[in-house]
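Dock pyridoxal-5'-phosphate; give full complex structure.
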Amino acid sequence: MGKIYNSITELIGHTPLVEFHRLEKALGLKGRIAGKLEYFNPAGSHKDRAALEIIEEAEKRGEISPKKTTLVEFTSGNMGIGIAAVAAAKGYKFKVGIQNGVSIERKKLLEAYGSELVNPPEDLIKGVFEKGIEAFNDVYQWMLDTTPDSWTTRQLSNPDNPGAHYRHTGPEIWEDTDGKVDIFVGGVGTGGSTHGVSKFLKEKNPSIKTVIAQPDKADVEHPVVQGVEDGGFHGIHAVHDENGLNPMAPTNFNDKVVDEYETVTYAETLRAIHLLAHYEGIFIGASSGASLAIAIKQALKDENKGKLIVPLLPDNGERYLSEDLQRVREDVEKKASF
Ligand SMILES: Cc1ncc(COP(=O)(O)O)c(C=O)c1O
């Protein structure tokens, strides 16, 4: 029987879970690692899922429609690209607020999908870094005030962001592992993916462990190579320290579904990226590399012998070619712990 899809939106989700057998063997891992390859989503990341869920749930509530609504969001990353693609496929206009320093690939992708790019006033953006997460509301308000008939997707607090991963990504991992997943690894940007996946998995089996990959503070403060300039490793940030959850932790992140926070250096991140590319033919982005590095560290432990570890791998390395993510930097990688 033939199969013709009606829209790119039908291709979001159902991403493959792949076991990294050659990597396991090369590193002598005790645990097994199967990566969830989110770059198989049509616009290239796990954010396609959040974009679709946020838009379709708002449509169901009758809050937006392509004829009357312009969608607005403030994002320099994959969320903008996901919304841009879904908006185009559904006929919405999309206006995206970006910060200076957004990678050229991302700006060009947003342009390709027909989005309007704007720079919110500098003082509002500065407020976000000085006052914390609450100040995002000022940027959103500016975007709403300057755009007629607009509606904001509010990725940091919209419950349909974690909802997408609770209703889809988590169940996919559960089904594809026949319920045998032992450890889930993810990173926190908005917190949507780790919150949604972990909540679902723990409801199925409370003994499944969730580990959060946290960029090493020292590497973020003193970056030795590109890829750490946004205060984290491209999309993920440290949200937890010795004092607990910090004020920059987004509303969409729920630390009740987290068992461990593990620090990952940029050297480990790069080494994980290059090992996966060289042994498995899979070239992932920096946040994926960070989660894979933590998965490797977990898989090296005796206590995790035979356990199945699933890192969520949000996007691929092609999105960062201008930063030479593909280049093996032996001087940096020799500092990795595996
Ligand atoms: C590449 C990348 N990795 C990880 C994340 C974090 O995902 P989440 O927002 O679901 O926490 C993002 C976006 O925020 C991202 O763009």
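Observed: The longest helix spans residues 160-176.
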